[in-house]
């Protein structure tokens, strides 16, 4: 046989190249790497290798695709390929380390870019984020098809997909299997949906509601008749005052325990949240503390029990009702948005703040009202009122301001959400009413009403009443009510 040196003697030994020493006996490779005749060749290869490597990195002649930043095997393969190329060109170890850091930085930067597109990452979820991104993209594809004939369809499809995916996530209570099935069912329903035109998109991205002019004829279409008002709980006539001295005990409006006004010394334990259904609990739980309704006595303690009077005759006995009259002058308030905040007193629930806007969203009135009876609870979580030190006017003085200064009359259209409660608090009888709680009907029927917070989020894409500690703001609620009416008018006009 012929000697190996014939083929390998011109190749420098790998051990010499790595650690400048070879301990292998009768090694077939060449060991003349450090002889003078090889020094020039070494320098030429080093300079040529460095130049080639830099050119490759700058010009991207080697295509390193790092689109899948989550694939560690791809990262190792890419780095191994680059190390091999560098070794072939005699690049030193510090250059290898620099390249490794560059590859890692590119991967981490690309990962951040991918995470910014799609649902927001929530580390506490039991559902993997990759699963959410997967179904988000599938939902987005369907909305891109549905909105293909709509201007700015990509933005609309992405925003709608983010909203729908989050709704599915919240409705499945972090159960992975339920989440996956819900997403699949929703995607199937989208596949059955036809392509929509621009006029069929009920979204406020095509209209700035702040600049929408509402005419009186637009408002007339949404006025409630007497039968609708009466079924919704509105008081249409001034009730006859009727007092009953036998009402010694009342039922607490929070914990439903009987108590006496004169001996209201016991503390009230209650839940401020609502009872909700869950997929993992047999019984309903409270939304405030997630405790079971069968064995929970309350997560909040109040020093007093509170109550609310619902009988019109008893309400009239506490504070007399007034009725809006015919206009005295030719000019009067044509339409206004009304929202009130109430507190608990020894006389039941009383008015504490009133806010009125005109139809162009100009603030007409925002006042704190001095209650007639002693205050038991400011109801801050819902009323947003922390003190009544700045309350200067009484309810009777408020009536004069409304009728004389604001020129409210029986021809004025009052707009509100669940306005029957506000009118009872003001003790006002009025029949020209637009109630957004009835305009946007609940899916279970007229006996149920959607909250203003829910309607604002669904139709206006607006979050209101988010501050649990500071409570509601009557200004914010009144503006949301007016914008809901604008949305309704605009959407109905598109259908005609």
UniProtKB/TrEMBL annotation:
<dbReference type="InterPro" id="IPR036397">
    <property type="entry name" value="RNaseH_sf"/>
</dbReference>
<keyword id="KW-0269">Exonuclease</keyword>
<keyword id="KW-0539">Nucleus</keyword>
<comment type="similarity">
    <text>Belongs to the REXO1/REXO3 family.</text>
</comment>
<feature type="domain" description="Exonuclease">
    <location>
        <begin position="334"/>
        <end position="494"/>
    </location>
</feature>
<dbReference type="GO" id="GO:0004527">
    <property type="term" value="F:exonuclease activity"/>
</dbReference>
<dbReference type="InterPro" id="IPR047021">
    <property type="entry name" value="REXO1/3/4-like"/>
</dbReference>
<dbReference type="GO" id="GO:0010629">
    <property type="term" value="P:negative regulation of gene expression"/>
</dbReference>
<dbReference type="GO" id="GO:0003676">
    <property type="term" value="F:nucleic acid binding"/>
</dbReference>
<dbReference type="GO" id="GO:0005634">
    <property type="term" value="C:nucleus"/>
</dbReference>
<dbReference type="InterPro" id="IPR013520">
    <property type="entry name" value="Ribonucl_H"/>
</dbReference>
<dbReference type="InterPro" id="IPR012337">
    <property type="entry name" value="RNaseH-like_sf"/>
</dbReference>
<dbReference type="InterPro" id="IPR034922">
    <property type="entry name" value="REX1-like_exo"/>
</dbReference>
<protein>
    <recommendedName>
        <fullName>Exonuclease domain-containing protein</fullName>
    </recommendedName>
</protein>
<keyword id="KW-0540">Nuclease</keyword>
<keyword id="KW-0378">Hydrolase</keyword>
């Amino acid at each position: 046989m012929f000697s190996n040196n014939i083929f390998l003697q011109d190749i420098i030994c790998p051990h010499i190249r790595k650690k400048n020493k070879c301990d292998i006996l009768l090694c077939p490779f060449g060991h003349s790497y450090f002889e003078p005749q090889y020094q020039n060749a070494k320098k030429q290869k080093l300079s040529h290798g460095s130049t080639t490597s830099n050119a490759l990195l700058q010009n991207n002649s080697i295509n390193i695709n790092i689109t899948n930043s989550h694939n560690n095997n791809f990262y190792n393969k890419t780095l191994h390929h680059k190390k091999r190329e560098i070794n072939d060109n005699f690049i030193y170890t510090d250059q290898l380390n620099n390249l490794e850091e560059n590859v890692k930085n590119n991967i981490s930067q690309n990962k951040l870019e991918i995470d910014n597109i799609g649902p927001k990452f929530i580390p506490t979820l039991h559902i993997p984020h990759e699963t959410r991104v997967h179904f988000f993209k599938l939902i987005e594809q369907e909305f891109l098809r549905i909105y293909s004939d709509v201007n700015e369809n990509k933005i609309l499809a992405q925003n709608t997909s983010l909203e729908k995916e989050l709704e599915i996530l919240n409705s499945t209570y972090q159960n992975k299997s339920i989440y996956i099935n819900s997403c699949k069912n929703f995607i199937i329903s989208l596949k059955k949906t036809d392509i929509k035109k621009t006029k069929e998109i009920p979204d406020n991205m095509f209209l700035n509601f702040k600049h929408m002019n509402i005419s009186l004829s637009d408002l007339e279409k949404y006025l409630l008749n007497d039968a609708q008002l009466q079924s919704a709980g509105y008081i249409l006539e001034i009730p006859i005052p009727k007092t009953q001295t036998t009402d010694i005990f009342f039922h607490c409006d929070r914990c439903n325990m009987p108590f006496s006004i004169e001996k209201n010394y016991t503390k009230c334990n209650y839940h401020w949240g609502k009872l909700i259904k869950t997929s993992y609990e047999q019984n309903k739980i409270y939304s405030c503390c997630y405790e079971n309704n069968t064995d929970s006595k309350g997560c909040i303690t109040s020093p007093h029990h509170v109550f609310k009077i619902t009988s019109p005759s008893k309400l009239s006995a506490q504070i007399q009702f007034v009725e809006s009259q015919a206009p005295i002058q030719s000019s009067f308030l044509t339409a206004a948005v009304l929202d009130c905040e109430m507190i608990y007193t020894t006389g039941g629930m009383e008015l504490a703040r009133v806010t009125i806007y005109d139809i162009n969203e100009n603030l007409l009135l925002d006042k704190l009202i001095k209650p007639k009876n002693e205050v038991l609870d400011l109801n801050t979580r819902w009323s947003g009122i922390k003190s009544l030190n700045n309350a200067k006017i009484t309810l009777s003085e408020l009536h004069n301001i409304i009728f004389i200064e604001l020129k409210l009359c029986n021809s004025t259209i009052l707009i509100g959400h669940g306005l029957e409660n506000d009118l009872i608090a003001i003790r006002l009888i009025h029949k020209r009413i637009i109630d957004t709680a009835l305009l946007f009907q609940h899916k279970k029927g007229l006996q149920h009403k959607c909250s203003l917070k829910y309607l604002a989020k669904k139709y206006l894409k607006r979050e209101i009443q988010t501050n649990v500690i500071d409570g509601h703001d009557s200004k914010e609620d009144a503006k949301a009510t007016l914008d809901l009416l604008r949305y309704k008018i605009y959407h109905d006009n598109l259908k005609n």
